[in-house]
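Question: what's this shape?

___
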Amino acid sequence: MTSTPIPPLDTPMGPDGDQLKTRRLLRALKTSKGLIGLFLVVSFTLTAILAPLLIRQDLSTMINIKARHAPPSLAHPMGTDNLGREISYRVLLGAQSSLLIAVSAVSLSLLLGLPLGVLAGHFKGWTDLALMRVVDTLLSFPVLLLALAISAILGPNLRNTIIAIGVAFAPYLARIVRSEALKVNSLPYVEAARSAGASHMRIIMRHILPNIMGPVIVQATISVAFAILAEAGLSFLGLGTQPPTPSWGLMIQTSRSYLDAAPWTALMPGTAIALSVLGLNMLGDVLRDVLDPTYTYH
């Protein structure tokens, strides 16, 4: 049994357009993928916001040698690490660092990549050629390698980690924005606005940007998931979040020598990374499906 496809979010639909957009989004979120993704993302976000308010920072750094490598139990829900610190506190507080760095880095990549892509897609010609050659040069480096190089040059701290990941992700967003801008730029209503004497700024702000934001939002959501992985990777290598600030990647790095005796020291932060990335990817897939006019919900 098939159902009638619902118009995509970017389709002009008259006065009832907002209701149809909302109905399509709600139907997507009611699927198993949508519910699981939304639950994981909301849980991750609430943990990052509420944990620092409910748990004192000193509890995550409190050393208790007598309780070192205690297995998970009622007294220690996620066990303890090699210094007897509560892993549960460190995992919960580590969500704040991961979310802060990931969202800030993706925001920076949008700040850099969005103008580049729009300018290249709108003006084309030599502007497109010059900007995209710079982007192609950056794309020749793997994201983590480029972020690692930038972080090594700037030095390991929170701000530089955000800059490193944001700059590394900007070329990918610029490419996507350019592709969408090229499509919108060739549509009849943009040609009509250009023929009517509309300025470049008016065309970009009124016609191009509003109609490319759908794919940009989807890519930004998925990029947050990859930014969490990148932050964990940099912290694991010692170029991300620095001690004593709790960080999932840093926790995995310090647990390497104790995997045989205390596997939970790596399992707990690793599970937190996996669930947060899974939730963001599933939510990104749902948003992509909502924006796809050929997708049908059953």
Summary: Confidence is low (pLDDT under 50) at residues 1-17, 294-298.
